[in-house]
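for ur thesis appendix - Peptidase A1 domain-containing protein. copy paste whatever u need, i formatted it the way the template wanted (i think)
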Amino acid sequence: MGFFSVFLFLILCSFEKAIIALAATSPEPHLPPHTTHTVEINSLLPATTCTPSTKGHTNNKASILEVVHKHGPCSIFHKSSKTSTTKSDDKYHAQILKQDEARVNSIHSRLNYRIHDPFTQSSASATLPAKSGLLLGSPNYLVTVGLGTPAKQLSLEFDTGSDLTWTQCRPCLRYCYTQSEPIFDPSLSASYKNLSCTSATCTQLSSAGIPHRCSSASSSCLYGIRYGDGSFSIGDFAKEKLTLTSMDVFEGFLFGCGQDNQGLFNGSAGLLGLGRNNISLVEQTAMKYNRFFSYCLPSTSSSTGHLTFGNGGGSANGVKFTKLTTLSERESSFYGLGLTGISVGGCQLPVASSVFSSSGTIIDSGTVITRLPATAYTALRDAFREGMKNYTMTMSFSLLDTCYNVSGYETVSFPDIAFGFGDGVTVDLDAAGILLAVSDSQVCLAFAGNKDDSDIGIIGNVQQKRLEVVYDVAGGKVGFAPASCP
Ligand SMILES: *[C@@H]1O[C@H](CO)[C@@H](O)[C@H](O)[C@H]1NC(C)=O
Ligand SMILES: *[C@@H]1O[C@H](CO)[C@@H](O)[C@H](O)[C@H]1NC(C)=O
Ligand SMILES: *[C@@H]1O[C@H](CO)[C@@H](O)[C@H](O)[C@H]1NC(C)=O
Ligand SMILES: *[C@@H]1O[C@H](CO)[C@@H](O)[C@H](O)[C@H]1NC(C)=O
Ligand SMILES: *[C@@H]1O[C@H](CO)[C@@H](O)[C@H](O)[C@H]1NC(C)=O
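the 3d part is after this line
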């Protein structure tokens, strides 16, 4: 957007404020109605029972998997652990946000080329966050896939920021954490095969930045992956039959069969890697789906969304596409987008597009809260606070510094927020993508600033809620359409 149009926006937005200021004696909201959301506070909070989406799971062109939040009432983890997330469970949110900081730090350090090699660090290392590990760093959204012959159902956390798919495997030579479903046992599967450490496939791990070794006993290929918070998985890099739906079966799918798994993933069986490197599920299924997938993350953890592979989900209507960018040769796993501006309550923030273009932006399904360059976040926060003037601010919550006491209110009205991309595409966020309800009396603006303007911006999963997010990797674009799941 050019200087003059930004300038025009500013005049219009200031003008609007002036008119509202003149009328300040009337109990009007601070923003005109078409630029605000009004929602029931309850709708931002998860219910204690699961309300699955009624969306069908059959489609002759695409494979549709149900997406559930790991800690909501729709997940198997929740049923087995019986730790219900209550409406005022702010400890739960505090833990999620702490874990989110660890993930963002690890993304920033990956981009700063500090790679961890789990083989060179003792796996009994005291640096592991011993008991804080429950939620730390894990992407939180689960899908269930089948692995092996006969197929065993496994709930994996899907992650567009990772490439390698892995699950815990028996006999858990060193360690397996508790998971909800039975741990995968390769000795009971007719289609499991170790890979030789001299095979070209084994060395492909390097291109994904994943260290590998040769097993001294069997000269099979060992992988080791360590996440930013100290969690890790080490085991055999192997081939197995992967069943997404009865129509979508992949022989010889490459995955990690983890014999030493520790840290954050507790509850789920492992991870489904949807990154851009060629060992990811997206690349391994490219022949069938042509690198096309989409998902919708539900507004709360008590409803369900979907993850769809292939371009047949009927989601093509109303999708606005923006160009997919690649960050660098070295760090090609992430999905880069050309974010150039943000508007709040219909007004473009006075932030130069160069602030966004010099940091760069990725979209990540596993980061919770969107991170912006510090300069952009400050402008967003100031504009949002201006629009929230008639609510009482309350203390910060974890990394969220713009929170309101909504005790006694049934509804809350707040400025809408839209992302602007360089190719003229504007994406309006859903109400659930703007405010995080920490409890029934505290809501917070669900954005945070990076410490440094040069750190990459990340569009997190809160901001993606209820949007159909469409990855057309072969077509070099990512698209958004409003409200495709509850
Ligand atoms: C703030 O504005 C909303 C929308 O008009 C109104 O319903 C609410 O009562 C106002 N709150 C206060 C504290 O004035
Ligand atoms: C892992 O989850 C199980 C429930 O599935 C729970 O009983 C256990 O305490 C958790 N372990 C850790 C280390 O958090
Ligand atoms: C795969 O390799 C591991 C050693 O890394 C070995 O323990 C296991 O028995 C092998 N499995 C098969 C099916 O060859
Ligand atoms: C994956 O990438 C590596 C390195 O870029 C390359 O050597 C390898 O051939 C690729 N594999 C496939 C299956 O495309
Ligand atoms: C919110 O306001 C109510 C009274 O209006 C008060 O009792 C409560 O302590 C406040 N909560 C927070 C988190 O500020």
